[in-house]
Amino acid sequence: KQEVTQIPAALSVPEGENLVLNCSFTDSAIYNLQWFRQDPGKGLTSLLLIQSSQREQTSGRLNASLDKSSGRSTLYIAASQPGDSATYLCAVSRVNDMRFGAGTRLTVKP
Amino acid sequence: KAGVTQTPRYLIKTRGQQVTLSCSPISGHRSVSWYQQTPGQGLQFLFEYFSETQRNKGNFPGRFSGRQFSNSRSEMNVSTLELGDSALYLCASSWSPTSGSVEQYFGPGTRLTVT
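Output (structure tokens, whole complex):
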């Protein structure tokens, strides 16, 4: 059974700092890994999708990497801003099966 | 292109009642998945529909059911509500019959409170 873990559970950083969020999974037989952002009480916004054959994806200040063999992914956020404050979730997918981590709650202080 | 829409956004029900939630996927998407999100359990998969057929089901009791219509809109029903059913219910859509292989797009969710 696929288990997805995100560390840390919460993170507080000053504005402008670069930061890394971690996601680990137990079964490397995945189709893809997706990073989402969730604002309080809202739905999920897709940030980046990494296919199993890829090593990383970039979008603006965000960079996500995937190491399937070790069951790890990282989300790197450059030059953090207060607007980045949210919960970040990773999800790993196999055929018709998507498992989520519990998320990392990020606070960026002005 | 309009995103995934869910109605209603907020709902308050009492124990023992039943509730129906609705999800309209992105135009052209034929796969709809439902998830329950609670502070204690996080995001848990309920079920997935593709072309009006349930393709996959999570580990939830039979009180939770769903269906999909020919226009890909989906409904989720919970009967005999319990306090523990209070949660944010999210639906997601994708174009692929193998939803795990492509990006999923989520709606804003329906916040259900059971009193």
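The mean pLDDT of chain B is 92.
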